[in-house]
Amino acid sequence: MRPRVYIDTSVIGGCEDEEFQEYSRRLLKEFQKGTKRAVVSDVTLLELEGAPPPVRQILAELPEGAVDYIGTSQEAFALAREYVREGVLSHNDFTDALHIAIATIERVDVLVSWNFRHIVNLERIRAFNAVNLKRGYPLLEIRSPREVLHEEEV
User: Fold this and answer.
1) In a domain, 19, yes or no
2) Does residue 153 fall inside a structural domain?
3) pLDDT digits (tens, 9 = 90+) for 32-72
4) Pair 79, 105: CB distance under 8 Å
5) Per-residue pLDDT at 26 exceeds 90
6) What is the domain-level CATH number for residue 102?
7) 150 pLDDT tier (thresholds 50, 70, 90)
8) Chain-wide mean pLDDT for the chain?
9) Residues in contact with 11: Cβ distance below 8 Å, sequence separation at least 6, in sequence order
10) Closest C-alpha to 131, from 140, 121, 143
11) Residue 132 domain-assigned (yes or no)
């Protein structure tokens, strides 16, 4: 079974950012080849509306069936509010909390992001997962794109 990988806006935008493009583009190629399946939420799509045209076009370049598009449920909103209530993130960072909550509820294999301040951060990952366990959800793997790429043998 192909791993389901939740990608946030930073991964898509990273395709057009010199610092992150190598690994973001390699991950997108894995979605194109079908070795991994992208999971994209309506939150990500909403954030992309304000992005430059080349960034907004990136998801359209993936083949049909390579992406699962998912909506934000009331359950996800409630879990995101728990992250804020528990002090994992502030209310100002609610969108980041929503990404984590959606990925948790969708039970993806991994959430991938370049957001090292609020998401790919060891202390926060532990705190997100503490809330998840307290609320009866599974642990969520959170990584950067570089960490989830399939390494080709040389």
Assistant:
1) yes
2) no
3) 999 999 999 999 999 999 999 999 999 999 998 999 999 99
4) yes
5) yes
6) 3.40.50.1010
7) confident
8) 95
9) 20, 24, 27, 112, 113, 114, 145
10) 140
11) yes
Question: DSSP secondary structure string, 60-104?
Answer: GGSPTTSEEEEPPPHHHHHHHHHHHHTTSS-GGGHHHHHHHHHHH
Q: How far apart are CA 132 and CA 75, in angstroms?
A: 12
- Residue 100 · residue 80 · CB < 8 Å: yes
Cα distances (angstroms) measured from residue 106 to each of 6, 61, 71, 76: 9, 24, 10, 9
The residue to which tokens 């999971």 are assigned: 39
How far apart CA 98 and CA 41 sit, in angstroms, is 10
Query: Letter for the amino acid at 139?
Result: L
Residue 120 domain-assigned? yes
Closest alpha carbon to 32 in 10, 60, 1: 60
Number of domains into which the chain is organized: 1
Which pLDDT tens digit goes with each residue over 114-133?
999 999 999 999 999 999 99
Domain that holds residue 113: 4-148
Q: For residues 63 and 46, give the distance between their C-alpha atoms in angstroms, rounded to a whole number.
A: 21
Amino acid at 70: I
